[in-house]
Amino acid sequence: MHFTVIARVLGILLMLFSLTMVPPMLVSMWYDDQATQAFAMALLIIFGIGFVSWLPVRRVRHDLRTRDGFLITVLFWLVLSLTGSFPLMLADNPGLSFTDAFFESLSGWTTTGATVITGIDELPKSILWYRQQLQWLGGMGIIVLAVAILPMLGIGGMQLFRAETPGPIKDSKLTPRIAETAKALWNIYLMLTIACAVSYWIAGMDAFDAIAHSFATVAIGGFSTYDASIGHFDSAAIEMIAVIFMLISALNFGLHFFAWHNKAQALVHYVRDSELKFFFFIIAGGIVLTVPALYLTGTYGWQESLRFGIFEVVSVATTTGFGTADFSVWPIFLPVLLFMMAFIGGCAGSTGGGMKAIRVLLIHKQGVREIRRLIHPNAIIPVKLGNAPVSERVLEAVWGFFALYVITYMVMMLALLATGLDHVTAFSAVGACLNNLGPGLGDVAAHYGDISDAAKWILSLTMLLGRLEIFTLLVLISPAFWRS
Fold first, then answer.
1. Is the peptide bond before 479 cis (omega within 30 degrees of 0)?
2. Which of this chain's residues are annotated to bind K(+) (predicted)?
3. CB within 8 A of 168, min separation 6: which ones?
4. Binding-site annotation, residues
């Protein structure tokens, strides 16, 4: 383990992150919202911590290997979430406690969108910008993690995407080619954000809200500058723009990466992708069940059922968490249906949360194979994606991930129940945080501000586990990981 190199990387990372305090500081100065000093102090503190970490080891050079990658990945989210909480504590409004500020910052970085803040409409513009910016930066980090790093680390079936993995696998080094892939992904991510912001602006948002909501939309984060979220604008055009960009951002950025470099074959590549087809099948199925149910129960008229049904299904299924209506009070099975869809989540290699569509598809195919094996015990029946067989090693990793996902869910729910939360709130809060969805049911349908500090720390760990695909964090507590 190269701890000196890890300290050097984290030092550089913190110094770079400190510069992200400049945009909200400029926003604060523009709107004169009295938060400028908080961001200036945060900039100096974060830069100082980074500089002190980097200076003693600035000349150290070693190749980073797989074990270093696990530790850096976890520390990336932990350290940036911790330092990202500084402005939220230092600013008079909202002036959060350490627990609340860390929860809000981690929620932003993991693009969960669970908030402890009420009265969002009254927050300073700079704080509003900062919350959205956290999600946008976190979304970019997730893309690089999912497309460039997790496949190399072999996390829970992500070996499927080693075709997009930069660097040689044979020696398990994390090579500089990750930077090349990250640069291309950054360009795609930035272009999507610009296109989304311009679309929102044309549809009627002012420039500030258009940029702020484009950050959260492309990151599939769900933070908004209003308590009423997207519903504040009461615009079908804005809602449909959000739906389009949520769907695009929930697709594997490996597909976007391929399309970026092979424009002539881009459409064919999208159409042939098994995960994409399965993902859209799930979305379509949710809409087909939700829209008629809203209409037949008299919840809305036909047009409103179509409008709100499509938006909420896409928002929850992609784990974005934007709202135009409170789906938690919808009739019959609808709240649970939408909530369960978030367990599938977006595609692997996207900014979405959940178990990922590719894993659920492989589990389904494996189940079908087991049924066929009961009928034909001696048959050799491979599991395929498209025409390509999937290796048994990948299938084992997917099942291992699923087992850990279920166990993690049970343990975290029991821990939340021990803090005094009711069953519905505990069940939905764990699901919303583990799937990086945000809004839940019961006492966390609107916000997380009323639950205890102990519950917030449990849910913070849950958000981190969900975002880091569980294995990445749990491997660090394995004794074998620390043996030389």
1. no
2. 111-112, 220-221, 319-320, 436-437
3. 175
4. 111-112, 220-221, 319-320, 436-437
Cα angle: 283, vertex 362, 355; to 5 degrees: 60
Q: How far apart are CA 475 and CA 480, in angstroms?
A: 9
* 429-462: b (≥16 Cβ within 10 Å) or e: bbbbbbbbbbbbbebbbebbbebeeebbebbbbb
Binding residue positions for K(+): 111-112, 220-221, 319-320, 436-437
Is the separation of the CB atoms in 348 and 275 below 8 Å? yes
Segment 66-125, tens digit of pLDDT: 777 788 888 888 999 999 999 999 999 898 999 999 999 999 999 999 999 989 999 999
Contact 4, 63 (CB under 8 A): no
| Phi, psi angles (nearest 5°) of residue 258 | -65, -45
459 contacts 106 by C-beta, under 8 angstroms: no
Q: For tokens 């769900």, what's the residue?
A: 222
- Is residue 118 within 8 A of residue 31, CB to CB? The reply is no
pTM of the model: 0.90
